[in-house]
Amino acid sequence: MTGRQLLTALALSLTLVVFSACGGNQQGKLPEENPGTTAVNSENVPSPSGGTNGNTIANAGEQVINQQVVELPDAAFLSAYPGVLRCMSLTLEQIITVLGTNFELYENTAQGYDIYKFPEYGLVLEYDTISEKLSTIWAGNTPYYVYSGTIASFDIDNDGREEEIAAYEDANLNGRVTVFSKEGLILADQTTDYFGGRCRMHLMVGYGPEKESLIILDTNNPKECEVFSYANGKLISMLPPAPANTGEQAIVESAQDRVILKFPDQGIIYDCPLPQHLIQSYPEGSTDFLYQFDRRIRPVIKDNVLYLSERTSLQIKFYGMEEDFSTCIDVAQVVREYQYAGGGKWQHLSTTGGPKYEKNSLAQGLHANDFRVGDVALLSPIRVVAPKIGMNLDQYSEYDLLAGILYRQGGICVGVTNELVSYISLEKDGEVETSRGLRIFHSKQQAMDLYGLPDRGYYEDSVWTYYRLRDERTADGIYRMADTFNIEFDGDSVRKIWMSEYISIY
């Protein structure tokens, strides 16, 4: 949920069920948060505490978790910026231990989030009950979007004292990194690009000849990562400048079932076969394939050395979707690898790449049956599907059915918009599988064997996207749609599978 949805929820509080946490059994029904793991380059750095199973209350300011004592901040620190960012490393139970039980709980079961309001501290927490973690923190009138965020306690300046390093998205939806002391003193603060749903943070000290302290953000933003050098209270970006416009250097020639990519100044010539479902989206016989270039950079840490992988990908657009830059197929890549030498200097190591597809291993495209899980098919009327998945529609208003519902049952999550199934996901281990047999925790190679190379993305990517084109007739005319089937990986294992109705860019 975004902060904008929080405002809507508060405005519509008459439609929500309001509870007083002091007034009965609601205290025993608090959901638990599972904070994300922050990666650091030190085995001695404690990670944020995990789940709350087996928790018992210890002395004031302490909590015992699995026989380990966790020191909790006081209420004044936790309810004001920057200390409020510590909420990212705490469970809901720990937060309530600090702030007390004088709060109001607003539940929105239709869209899958709860709002905890602490009037005494001017603090509001929005909790995503589907993902089971905090999504937004409001301190006064200022939102901090922490759904994609992470936080670590780490001695970033190597002075023998740990600092707090928080990565989150601010009120303008920019990515932001704030370094602050255990006493709440802001030591450094800097903005970067948005995170795109996830941020993994790596911390390194004593790097290179200048002994730099580095804060490295690997995000789901499709275009950017970030490398900050921290010194003397400043965070300075060490990313190299973007190269000249790739399109001005490249030559792309079209043939009947392929394109030829050339970079004359680099001696690169790639013969790139195209999948049939891409070719068939164009008028018969047309070779006027529309294309664009996409640049992405990612940090890679090997043996305590920082590398940067810069990929330029040639993407061919589907016919009829020329204005939608996000719906296209990657067909060739040029990858340049750099090593960070310190002091903002990057050494070019290699240039590799080539066509994505071979002629005998072209993607075949997905079909309507791929967009279903068991009895639930994308774009099905929810009134037909509901009895099959145990969903009681009497619990929802007509407004809910039109504006949006998230329903989780039996290992799947179903999204409903305009009384149609618009979203289906598998996010946890279980017996549920896709129509081709893919499950959570299956390997990347199993996904490859079942679905082939993705339309958007490459084998080494953490997210694969496949498209199914369809034409939808409306009162205003016929529109081309591209529903998506997506697989997200955590290393070599399937982490999440989801399919979604096309959302127009207009």
Total of helices: 8
Number of strands: 31
- The strand order across the widest sheet is 1-5-6-7-8-9-10-11-12
Instruction: Please tell me how large the radius of gyration is.
Output: 25 Å
Strand content: 35-45%
Q: Let me know the largest β-sheet.
A: 9 strands, antiparallel
Characterization of this structure:
By secondary structure, the chain is mainly beta. 9% of the residues lie in helices and 44% in strands. The chain contains eight helices and 31 strands. The protein has a nine-stranded antiparallel sheet with strand order 1-5-6-7-8-9-10-11-12, covered by helices on one side. Strand 29 (463-474) and strand 30 (477-490) form a beta hairpin. The radius of gyration is 25 Å and the shape is flat. The two termini are 21 Å apart. Residues 1-60 have low confidence and may be disordered.
Q: Can you lay out the helices and strands and say which pair or pack?
A:
Blueprint (H helix, E strand, L loop, with lengths): L2 H9 L5 E4 L35 E2 L4 E4 L2 E4 L3 H4 L13 H8 L4 E5 L4 E6 L4 E6 L4 E7 L2 E13 L8 E7 L5 E6 L5 E7 L6 E9 L4 E8 L6 E6 L2 E4 L8 H4 L1 E4 L3 E6 L4 E6 L2 H4 L11 E12 L2 E13 L10 E15 L2 E11 L16 E2 L2 E2 L4 H4 L12 H6 L1 E5 L2 E6 L2 E7 L17 H8 L11 E12 L2 E14 L2 E8 L6
Antiparallel strand pairs: 1-5, 2-3, 3-4, 5-6, 6-7, 7-8, 8-9, 9-10, 10-11, 11-12, 13-14, 14-15, 15-16, 17-18, 18-19, 20-21, 21-22, 22-23, 24-25, 26-27, 27-28, 28-31, 29-30, 30-31
